[in-house]
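Example S7 (C-alpha coordinates).
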Protein backbone atom coordinates (compact mmCIF):
# COMPACT_ATOMS: atom_id res chain seq x y z
CA UNK A 1 0.00 0.00 0.00
CA UNK A 2 1.18 3.57 -0.74
CA UNK A 3 -0.17 6.92 0.29
CA UNK A 4 -0.66 9.98 -1.92
CA UNK A 5 0.48 13.23 -0.32
CA UNK A 6 -0.03 16.87 -1.37
CA UNK A 7 2.30 18.44 -3.92
CA UNK A 8 3.90 20.50 -1.14
CA UNK A 9 5.41 17.60 0.71
CA UNK A 10 6.60 19.46 3.85
CA UNK A 11 3.04 20.46 4.76
CA UNK A 12 1.66 16.95 4.31
CA UNK A 13 4.68 15.47 6.03
CA UNK A 14 4.24 17.60 9.11
CA UNK A 15 0.58 16.65 9.36
CA UNK A 16 1.50 12.98 9.09
CA UNK A 17 4.24 13.30 11.70
CA UNK A 18 1.82 14.93 14.15
CA UNK A 19 -0.10 11.65 14.36
CA UNK A 20 2.94 9.98 15.93
CA UNK A 21 4.05 12.78 18.23
CA UNK A 22 4.06 12.11 21.98
CA UNK A 23 4.20 8.30 21.67
CA UNK A 24 7.20 7.25 23.80
CA UNK A 25 7.85 3.84 22.19
CA UNK A 26 7.07 4.80 18.60
CA UNK A 27 9.64 6.24 16.18
CA UNK A 28 8.39 8.00 13.04
CA UNK A 29 10.47 9.28 10.15
CA UNK A 30 9.99 10.51 6.62
CA UNK A 31 12.94 10.37 4.22
CA UNK A 32 13.30 11.56 0.66
CA UNK A 33 14.29 9.06 -2.02
CA UNK A 34 17.99 9.82 -1.51
CA UNK A 35 17.78 8.82 2.16
CA UNK A 36 17.75 12.27 3.78
CA UNK A 37 15.38 12.77 6.70
CA UNK A 38 12.60 15.26 6.02
CA UNK A 39 10.57 14.92 9.23
CA UNK A 40 11.00 12.91 12.44
CA UNK A 41 9.13 12.80 15.75
CA UNK A 42 10.66 13.49 19.16
CA UNK A 43 11.03 9.80 20.00
CA UNK A 44 13.10 9.31 16.86
CA UNK A 45 15.30 12.25 17.82
CA UNK A 46 15.89 10.76 21.26
CA UNK A 47 16.91 7.42 19.72
CA UNK A 48 19.30 9.11 17.27
CA UNK A 49 21.97 9.74 19.94
CA UNK A 50 19.58 12.17 21.66
CA UNK A 51 19.99 14.83 18.96
CA UNK A 52 17.51 17.62 18.42
CA UNK A 53 15.07 17.32 15.54
CA UNK A 54 16.71 20.24 13.74
CA UNK A 55 20.06 18.43 13.86
CA UNK A 56 18.55 15.38 12.14
CA UNK A 57 16.72 17.00 9.24
CA UNK A 58 18.83 16.72 6.08
CA UNK A 59 20.99 13.97 7.54
CA UNK A 60 21.05 10.31 6.46
CA UNK A 61 21.08 7.13 8.54
CA UNK A 62 24.84 6.96 7.95
CA UNK A 63 25.20 10.26 9.78
CA UNK A 64 23.14 9.19 12.79
CA UNK A 65 23.58 5.48 13.46
CA UNK A 66 26.31 2.87 13.74
CA UNK A 67 27.39 1.49 10.32
CA UNK A 68 25.85 -1.95 10.84
CA UNK A 69 22.49 -0.35 11.68
CA UNK A 70 22.62 2.18 8.84
CA UNK A 71 23.39 -0.59 6.35
CA UNK A 72 20.26 -2.46 7.40
CA UNK A 73 18.06 0.63 7.09
CA UNK A 74 19.49 1.49 3.65
CA UNK A 75 18.82 -2.06 2.44
CA UNK A 76 15.19 -1.80 3.49
CA UNK A 77 14.78 1.58 1.79
CA UNK A 78 16.32 0.26 -1.40
CA UNK A 79 13.93 -2.69 -1.42
CA UNK A 80 10.88 -0.45 -0.94
CA UNK A 81 11.99 1.87 -3.74
CA UNK A 82 12.83 -0.97 -6.12
CA UNK A 83 9.72 -3.08 -5.57
CA UNK A 84 7.14 -0.46 -4.59
CA UNK A 85 5.97 -2.89 -1.92
CA UNK A 86 5.84 -1.91 1.77
CA UNK A 87 7.96 -3.53 4.47
CA UNK A 88 5.75 -5.02 7.16
CA UNK A 89 6.73 -6.21 10.65
CA UNK A 90 10.47 -6.12 9.97
CA UNK A 91 12.47 -6.86 13.12
CA UNK A 92 15.55 -4.67 13.39
CA UNK A 93 17.98 -3.21 15.88
CA UNK A 94 17.69 0.46 16.84
CA UNK A 95 19.37 2.44 19.59
CA UNK A 96 17.40 3.40 22.70
CA UNK A 97 17.60 6.70 24.52
CA UNK A 98 20.29 5.36 26.89
CA UNK A 99 22.42 4.26 23.92
CA UNK A 100 21.72 0.54 24.30
CA UNK A 101 20.49 -1.54 21.38
CA UNK A 102 16.96 -2.92 21.26
CA UNK A 103 14.74 -4.83 18.88
CA UNK A 104 12.03 -2.85 17.18
CA UNK A 105 9.34 -3.85 14.71
CA UNK A 106 9.18 -1.59 11.66
CA UNK A 107 6.76 -0.80 8.83
CA UNK A 108 7.85 1.21 5.78
CA UNK A 109 5.85 2.49 2.82
CA UNK A 110 6.35 4.73 -0.19
CA UNK A 111 4.58 8.06 -0.39
CA UNK A 112 3.65 9.21 -3.90
CA UNK A 113 2.90 12.60 -5.38
CA UNK A 114 -0.17 13.25 -7.52
CA UNK A 115 1.69 11.98 -10.60
CA UNK A 116 2.27 8.64 -8.88
CA UNK A 117 6.02 9.14 -8.45
CA UNK A 118 7.81 8.25 -5.19
CA UNK A 119 8.69 11.31 -3.13
CA UNK A 120 9.41 9.85 0.30
CA UNK A 121 9.63 6.76 2.47
CA UNK A 122 7.58 6.74 5.66
CA UNK A 123 8.75 4.52 8.52
CA UNK A 124 7.19 3.67 11.87
CA UNK A 125 9.08 1.57 14.44
CA UNK A 126 7.75 0.20 17.72
CA UNK A 127 9.92 -0.90 20.64
CA UNK A 128 8.91 -4.54 21.12
CA UNK A 129 11.15 -5.46 24.02
CA UNK A 130 9.66 -6.12 27.43
CA UNK A 131 11.66 -5.86 30.69
CA UNK A 132 11.74 -9.66 30.87
CA UNK A 133 13.67 -9.80 27.61
CA UNK A 134 16.54 -7.63 28.83
CA UNK A 135 18.62 -10.51 30.19
CA UNK A 136 18.79 -12.17 26.79
CA UNK A 137 19.60 -9.08 24.76
CA UNK A 138 23.30 -8.75 25.50
CA UNK A 139 24.10 -12.16 24.04
CA UNK A 140 22.09 -11.35 20.93
CA UNK A 141 23.90 -8.05 20.52
CA UNK A 142 27.24 -9.90 20.67
CA UNK A 143 26.00 -12.49 18.18
CA UNK A 144 24.92 -9.74 15.80
CA UNK A 145 28.24 -7.93 16.13
CA UNK A 146 30.06 -11.20 15.43
CA UNK A 147 27.97 -11.79 12.31
CA UNK A 148 28.79 -8.30 11.04
CA UNK A 149 32.49 -8.76 11.79
CA UNK A 150 32.72 -12.16 10.07
CA UNK A 151 30.24 -12.10 7.19
CA UNK A 152 33.05 -12.17 4.59
CA UNK A 153 34.25 -15.51 5.98
CA UNK A 154 32.45 -18.84 6.31
CA UNK A 155 31.13 -17.98 9.75
CA UNK A 156 28.75 -20.47 11.36
CA UNK A 157 25.99 -20.41 13.99
CA UNK A 158 28.38 -22.12 16.40
CA UNK A 159 30.80 -19.18 15.98
CA UNK A 160 28.02 -16.78 16.96
CA UNK A 161 27.05 -18.92 19.94
CA UNK A 162 30.64 -19.18 21.15
CA UNK A 163 31.08 -15.40 20.98
CA UNK A 164 27.80 -14.91 22.85
CA UNK A 165 28.85 -17.35 25.59
CA UNK A 166 26.10 -19.90 25.07
CA UNK A 167 25.49 -23.18 23.32
CA UNK A 168 24.33 -23.23 19.72
CA UNK A 169 21.00 -24.70 20.81
CA UNK A 170 20.51 -21.98 23.43
CA UNK A 171 21.30 -19.22 20.94
CA UNK A 172 18.87 -20.78 18.47
CA UNK A 173 16.07 -20.87 21.05
CA UNK A 174 16.73 -17.36 22.29
CA UNK A 175 16.92 -15.84 18.83
CA UNK A 176 13.75 -17.59 17.70
CA UNK A 177 11.90 -16.47 20.83
CA UNK A 178 13.02 -12.85 20.82
CA UNK A 179 13.39 -11.98 17.15
CA UNK A 180 11.98 -14.93 15.20
CA UNK A 181 15.22 -15.46 13.29
CA UNK A 182 17.56 -18.45 13.35
CA UNK A 183 21.34 -17.83 13.63
CA UNK A 184 21.90 -19.25 10.15
CA UNK A 185 19.39 -16.80 8.69
CA UNK A 186 20.96 -13.94 10.63
CA UNK A 187 24.27 -14.65 8.91
CA UNK A 188 22.61 -14.64 5.49
CA UNK A 189 20.66 -11.49 6.33
CA UNK A 190 23.84 -9.65 7.31
CA UNK A 191 25.47 -10.69 4.02
CA UNK A 192 22.41 -9.57 2.08
CA UNK A 193 22.27 -6.20 3.85
CA UNK A 194 25.99 -5.61 3.27
CA UNK A 195 25.56 -6.53 -0.40
CA UNK A 196 22.56 -4.23 -0.83
CA UNK A 197 24.50 -1.40 0.78
CA UNK A 198 27.30 -1.82 -1.76
CA UNK A 199 24.85 -2.12 -4.65
CA UNK A 200 23.24 1.16 -3.60
CA UNK A 201 26.36 3.09 -2.63
CA UNK A 202 28.81 2.05 -5.35
CA UNK A 203 29.09 1.18 -9.02
CA UNK A 204 31.20 -1.94 -8.43
CA UNK A 205 30.22 -4.99 -10.41
CA UNK A 206 27.71 -7.37 -8.84
CA UNK A 207 30.24 -10.19 -9.17
CA UNK A 208 32.81 -8.25 -7.11
CA UNK A 209 30.21 -7.34 -4.50
CA UNK A 210 29.21 -11.00 -4.17
CA UNK A 211 32.79 -12.02 -3.37
CA UNK A 212 33.28 -9.09 -0.97
CA UNK A 213 30.17 -10.10 0.99
CA UNK A 214 30.98 -13.79 1.40
CA UNK A 215 28.75 -15.31 -1.30
CA UNK A 216 30.07 -18.12 -3.47
CA UNK A 217 29.21 -16.20 -6.64
CA UNK A 218 26.93 -13.53 -8.11
CA UNK A 219 24.11 -16.00 -8.76
CA UNK A 220 24.04 -17.07 -5.10
CA UNK A 221 23.96 -13.44 -3.98
CA UNK A 222 21.15 -12.60 -6.41
CA UNK A 223 19.05 -15.53 -5.19
CA UNK A 224 19.40 -14.53 -1.56
CA UNK A 225 18.70 -10.84 -2.20
CA UNK A 226 15.59 -11.69 -4.19
CA UNK A 227 14.43 -14.09 -1.46
CA UNK A 228 14.88 -11.46 1.25
CA UNK A 229 13.70 -8.37 -0.63
CA UNK A 230 11.59 -9.66 -3.51
CA UNK A 231 13.68 -7.84 -6.12
CA UNK A 232 16.98 -8.44 -7.90
CA UNK A 233 20.21 -6.53 -7.16
CA UNK A 234 19.99 -4.84 -10.58
CA UNK A 235 16.47 -3.62 -9.76
CA UNK A 236 17.71 -2.19 -6.46
CA UNK A 237 20.55 -0.38 -8.24
CA UNK A 238 18.21 0.97 -10.88
CA UNK A 239 15.86 2.31 -8.21
CA UNK A 240 18.72 4.27 -6.68
CA UNK A 241 19.77 5.71 -10.03
CA UNK A 242 23.06 3.80 -10.49
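Recovered sequence:
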Amino acid sequence: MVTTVPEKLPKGALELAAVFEGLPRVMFSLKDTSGKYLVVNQTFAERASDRSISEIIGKTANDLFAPELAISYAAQDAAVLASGRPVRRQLELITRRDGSLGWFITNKSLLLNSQGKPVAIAAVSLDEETPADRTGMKGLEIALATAHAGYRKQITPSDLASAAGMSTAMLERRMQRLIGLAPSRLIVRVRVEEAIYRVVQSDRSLADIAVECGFTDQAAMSRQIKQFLGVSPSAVREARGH
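Notes on this example. The CA atoms of residues 17 and 166 lie 42 Å apart.
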